[in-house]
Design a protein that fits this description.
21 strands, globular, eight-stranded parallel β-sheet, alpha/beta, seven-stranded mixed β-sheet
């Protein structure tokens, strides 16, 4: 693209570049060409007056289920990336628990091809740690990394075999690829459908102790120390796990973690208030109030590295059944930024810069994309969104870009709205108009 676009008047929030100021940004050929006074001196660009808005790097989501191949009734690469654009997310990492699992170069190439032809945001691929996600035999890590895989994970299942996980950390370190562990000890969680505690007893539902998350996190912290390997924990939700993560970081281990917006917004009391609505059923389950408060504290003090959605679309047939039989998972792409602003920034827990760091800059760094994604420094990709931080809107899933509707935030008023999203210098979404390409 040769068109020059000058965005003026916005508050540029770019923690990776150390900028938080009202300034101008010039975009050209899909890249950031100039920032500040140098941008204003360029003649002839198309101008976008963004006064009163925030200009931030496009969100980088480490944890997204696009469901393709094999589960297209729930989501597709096309619909999932449209949902991402509507939420200000410009780069997603597709999870491998598809049908068949993304465990071979052939399937990775299929997803990449579909993303190139049908996606409206950047799609990066994760691959399964084990063949078929069965937890038995390691995938061909070297070949998968050569094919462009940025993450290894058996998401949806933790790697239970300690010796296998040890070898994974060693091989992944050789190939410099991120390993994300789904922390769940099935011996403890098996049969559970919600958090174990007073609420599960009141509702008469089988509980799932947060110790199931913490026990696997503890084992992998030990393995990370023993191997010198690097491990990332997906969707941490419990106080005990976060205490262990804080301990690991204090020891200087290569251990990082993300949480999801539902874990700092809701706790298991939501299920009482909403009569066991299955849109509140997810893996890991909503914790108690003390868990939610611990998540917020870990986001504030730097223990947690990133916010990722764990966007998990399901059809109504998967959710409109008894709670015990309902699928685990909720939507996240179209509400993640708004929930972060509403529940964390406007509530006074974190600064706007910290929010952008958690949603964009740090995820890009974890994937080795710093300098290209998660920043609007000169030379970076022109992936960005414009945000109205004080605009209030009400969640209406019927208007989502996603194919699915399974959100516990239906009808919730949120403060903070994505107005426009750009990928590689092209506007892909505008509030009120929808997808633009």
């Amino acid at each position: 693209m040769s068109q020059k676009i000058l965005i003026t008047g916005a508050r540029l929030i770019d923690p990776a570049a150390g900028i938080d100021a009202v300034t101008s940004v010039l975009l050209e050929n899909g890249k950031v060409a100039a920032v500040g006074a140098a941008a204003d001196k360029v003649a002839g660009p198309d101008k976008v007056d963004a006064k009163g808005l925030w200009l931030i790097p496009g969100l980088v989501d480490l944890h997204v289920h696009l469901r393709e191949p094999g589960q297209e009734g729930k989501e597709t690469i096309a619909s999932g990336t449209r949902a991402a654009a509507a939420g200000g997310v410009t780069t997603v990492v597709a999870m491998p628990n598809t049908t068949p699992a993304m465990d071979s170069v052939a399937i990775i190439e299929l997803v990449k091809s579909k993303a190139k032809s049908e996606g409206v945001v950047n799609v990066l691929c994760s691959a399964a740690i084990t063949k078929g996600r069965l937890g038995v035999e390691m995938t061909e890590i070297g070949e998968l990394v050569k094919a462009g895989v940025v993450m290894l994970t058996d998401d949806g299942d933790g790697v239970a075999n300690s010796e296998l996980m040890r070898r994974v950390l060693e091989y992944a370190g050789m190939h410099k690829v991120l390993v994300m562990q789904h922390c769940e000890d099935k011996a403890l969680s098996d049969g559970g459908v919600m958090n174990e505690g007073p609420v599960s007893l009141e509702l008469g539902l089988r509980g799932w102790p947060k110790a199931a998350e913490a026990s696997m996190a503890a084992r992998d912290i030990v393995l990370a120390e023993y191997t010198g390997g690097r491990v990332h924990f997906g969707h941490l939700s419990g106080k005990q796990s976060l205490d262990l993560l804080r301990y690991a970081k204090a020891k200087g281990l290569q251990v990082t973690a993300e949480t999801a917006p539902h874990f700092f917004t809701l706790d298991d009391s939501w299920l009482i208030e909403h009569a066991c609505d299955t849109d509140g059923k997810m893996n890991p389950p909503l914790g108690g109030r003390h868990d939610r408060e611990a998540v917020i504290a870990a986001l504030k003090d730097g223990t947690l590295d990133a916010i990722a959605t764990d966007h998990a679309p399901h059809s109504s047939l998967d959710k409109q059944v008894e709670f015990d039989k309902a699928a685990f998972g909720i939507l996240g792409l179209e509400t993640s930024l708004a929930l972060t602003l509403d529940q964390l920034v406007h509530a006074g827990h974190i600064t706007p810069s910290r929010a952008v760091e958690l949603l964009s800059a740090k995820p890009a760094e974890l994937l080795g994309l710093q300098g290209r994604k998660g920043t609007l420094a000169v030379g970076a990709d022109a992936d960005l969104c414009l945000v109205a931080p004080d605009e209030t809107w009400t969640v209406d899933a019927s208007k989502f870009q996603s194919k699915s509707r399974n959100t516990p935030f239906e009808g919730m008023a949120l403060k903070g709205r994505v107005k426009k999203t750009m990928v590689a210098g092209t506007w892909v979404y505008e509030d009120g108009k929808g997808i633009l390409i």
